Amino acid sequence: MLSMQKLSAILLLCANVFGASDAEVLAxxxxxxxxxxxxxxxxxxxxxxxxxxxxxxxxxxxxxxxADVKQGNESRHINQSGxxxxxxxxxxxxxxxxxxxxxxxxxxxxxxxxxxxxxxxLISGNTNARYKVAIFSDPLCPFCRRYVPETLSxxxxxxxTFGVYYFHYPLPTLHPAAxxxxxxxxxxxxxxxxxxxxxxxxxxxxxNEKDEGKILDAFNKTFNSKxxxxxxxxxxxIKQFESDQKAAQSAMVSGTPTVFFNGVKDPTKNKYxxxxxx
Length: 278
Hints:
Blueprint: H1 4-9, E1 15-16, H2 22-34, E2 39-51, E3 59-71, E4 74-87, E5 90-92, H3 104-107, E6 122-124, E7 131-137, H4 142-155, E8 162-168, H5 177-190, H6 196-200, H7 212-223, H8 229-232, H9 235-250, E9 258-261, E10 264-265
């Protein structure tokens, strides 16, 4: 898939947009992306905007991008999101505070869409908990395998303080086995198996495995379950899988683990540790 970085590279690092309106910003981006002969049917929309903290006059534009991309003899339809920074007559695909070293592409994101705080994604705590924590994770991401179990172990002790919403976000280009593993976890959740998320991170499987049968066997061994490949293909499983991917796209999630704390992206992933609990 053509990556967001490659799409961004089509544009100039810093370009004159003539103090443009939103419509003119979109037109400028569309022209730049469509200038690639392998990209067609480009559609852009501004999801939201935010002022950039510490950078007076700059705004972050969160842009949804759809396009058809030709790769060899094949054409693929892509849905991606991009962050662009606009100030007066200047547009840049990256923005760094040279005093603090903060790279705003990493720290800024749209607020987490409230409609994705659903009961299907609530794995710990109460719906009216004081803090809502949304976690996007790939079960075969090495950092996730350390971070998620430790984080959940702590927050589950305080259900009135933390409502934890978990979103399956496998990264197939890095961990092909994660897609099947994720669908197995969703099927297990829908079968009301206990402690699915925590146990998911203990499944022993090569991240590069592509044989669905082998991946499912490893899952069943860990869970002492008897799920079949047909279970993973149930409409309800696919619907939940797609819902999690849609949430990730809306929140402009691109890596794992990604954490939102009360609707705002938490680059440290540890803001929950700052909360005094009783």
